[in-house]
Amino acid sequence: MTQAPHISTAGVDDWVELSPGEPQAAPRPLRGEGTFALSEPMQLGYLAWLCHCRWIVTGILAAYGLAGRVEGVLGRLGLVEPADWALACAGILAVLNVGFLAHARRLRRREDYNQIVPALWLQIICDMLVLTGVVHFAGPLTTYIPFAYLFHVVLACIFFAMPSSLLVTLLACLLYASLLAAEDQGLLEPRSLYQADLGLHIRRRPAVLLGNALSAISVWLVVWYMAMHLSDKVRRRDAELAGTNRCLLQAQREKTRHMLRTAHELKSPLATIHANVQLLLKGYGGPLTPHGRDVVQRIARRCRSLSLEVQEMLQLANLRNDSQRPDVARLDLADVLGACVRQVREAGSERSVRVDEDLAQAWIVAPEDHVKMLLMNLLSNAVVYSHPGGTVRVWCGTDGGRARARIEDDGIGISREHLERVFEEYYRTPQAVEHNKQSSGLGLAIVREVAHAWGIRVRLSSRPGEGTRVELLFPPPDGAAQAQGDA
Asked: Quick one: 217 and 357 in the same domain?
């Protein structure tokens, strides 16, 4: 099942537009991260997003390191010169990020979802190790840079379930505590951004040093708890919505299957009834009285109406069947539209409605039967809802390399309060029901499905008593062919 296209409305004129989009699949839980983990496509997106953020950090470190190479720039700010450590950290991050980006693209291309969690863990651990080096050179007691660990704590709460996010938080605490212990024991020479070591008196008092470390770690744990609590609530809500969406998708599939089964079961009996009715009208069962002929003719009309409705039900169900992907072809829209115009002209003559055409060559790439379904429904509506003696105007051509088509009439029109719902199944305005009682209400729903499946932008504008105008904008032929190849 495809997702219904976005319908937008705006402006003084009464119009509604179908914006083509991509079908959305139901979210799947991430392997190995519990019921409430993010979906795999979202995790792949976060992998790429982390890489973009890492470039920003790399740029900041590189800029600081380069500033330290210019004599006097950092000194005037009371900072230590030079800052070669920042350049070294920026270089390490840049090399890592290139590898991470290549790996993320490979996972996306191969759809190797089993490697998402290890990739996230690898990125977070590498980032925290580099961050520990930055904290050491910046001064773990004299700057606020140690609180940068909180970024990874919060991200872990978003990416992972509770046990994994707690493990990331404990890792941050361990790295920071180990750094302080190494400096305190003389394993690492204490460093600072500032020319005056403001943390010297802290290092000389072990109780103050311990209190400083415990206070920072306590803040991280509190932040982890709050972020994890909120993130867990969001994930639970997302899981509930995903479950509801799966139920709705399943219900829609069942509805489609039932529609197909019912339509197929009705098709043969209706064909039999229609054939027998035609025999009766031709006198094979004996002469009919005027009253009997009127009754049989009404049966024939109703049979034609039901046959049309069954046909539209089958068309709509087949359009929603994801397992059937029709073959596409390069088509001249003028030829397809001209053939459809010739078919509706007979119905137009019966209603005294003239159909004028102005068709120029315009190439599209789409299944011919789907395009005909879309055009026939729009043309039939234009003819059926026109007043006797009215005119339906049909045009097609190109605009910026893209095929365009326009179908307009001067019929009954559609009021603003009904315009936004005309693409719904079985929805008919009171004016439409009064004007034509035989319609199934599925024609524009078929238009919606075809437009969404093949990226056709549909704009419908209408005013009551003034008529309706439908504009179609097809995707570029090359782009449509490429999209079909990717699919």
From this structure: no
